[in-house]
């Protein structure tokens, strides 16, 4: 391989890895929403099918029928199953200026959650609301104690939030850890007694996500946009809109397929009913811009969901993975051509560019 082709090939591999194993981009919405909680998030959201019969026990509410809308679930959803969102990732440049007076800012945090969408919180049989099962928050760069204050404040007035478990994340400096071979992972571990000095402490396991990128998925971007932008139930009975926008050039949404493992070790976090490993579930990996509203009645919150956050298409100027695919083919041809020119010409072997659709 010539120096040029080797350098180009190395650059391509580095670019592919950087697409996922990165922090979040800058907060681009704070200047338009100074009094609201805003941030940039780089997260992996997975749709885990669970037994519909377990939903009410987990949420306290009846499940709504899973939509038959082909723009949300083009291939339908498995009979007897209900979608559950499991996500984790990196949050950057978190800002809020309450009453436009004191500007508050946190440089970065890690966050993960288990949420059940399509819950009949309003009891009208049609308004989809997301009910959190567990929320987790963690510090970055080994600073586990960063999570203590946000986790306490989130559950009390006037913050109107949810109960959040402080946790450590692996990794805690980027959105997902490259494992080699095109695989990535993120682990969430709630703690009772952290030990940031000598290492051993009282930690538990909440969930792990291990995934590979894929070109094929039973879902679309709109599937995830629709689910992620459902208002979420708060501890005080109100609902909160956390609009996530993907209409920025650095959104770079990608589909993935994953093994998601949920543990049941402490304080029903997660509950025993959903413990286990879910193989071959499909996920969405992207950089979004989040704007959090104040709590309001759930019916009102649902009526105010911003249509711009539900955009059905991919909101980037180009499909990055297609460009990379074309470049990879071109690069392979260059390598073949250059390798065939010298006296040490040899055959090159390479496999399919797309990862498998599930783990075997």
Q: Would you give an account of this structure?
A:
The chain has 360 residues and is α+β, with helices and mostly antiparallel strands. Helix content is 18%, strand content 34%. The chain has helices spanning 3-20, 55-59, 148-153, 221-228, 298-303, 320-339; strands at 37-51, 81-96, 104-119, 129-138, 164-170, 177-180, 183-193, 202-203, 207-214, 232-233, 239-240, 242-245, 254-262, 276-292. Strands 1-2-3-4-5-7-9-13-14 form a nine-stranded mixed barrel. Strands 10-11 form a two-stranded antiparallel ribbon. A hairpin with a 7-residue loop joins strand 2 and strand 3. Helix 1 runs antiparallel to helix 6. The relative contact order is 0.17. Mean pLDDT is 81; it is low at 1-17, 313-324 and 334-360.
Strand order of the largest sheet: 1-2-3-4-5-7-9-13-14
Number of strands: 14
Number of helices: 6
Poorly predicted regions are 1-17, 313-324, 334-360
Structural class: alpha+beta
Calculate the mean pLDDT score and round it.
Answer: 81
The N- to C-terminal Cα distance equals 34 Å
Residues in helices, as a percent range: 10-25%
**Whole-angstrom Rg:** 21 Å
What is the string of helix and strand elements?
HEHEEEHEEEEEHEEEEEHH
| Approximate shape | globular
Describe the largest sheet. Answer: 9 strands, mixed, barrel
% residues in beta strands: 25-35%
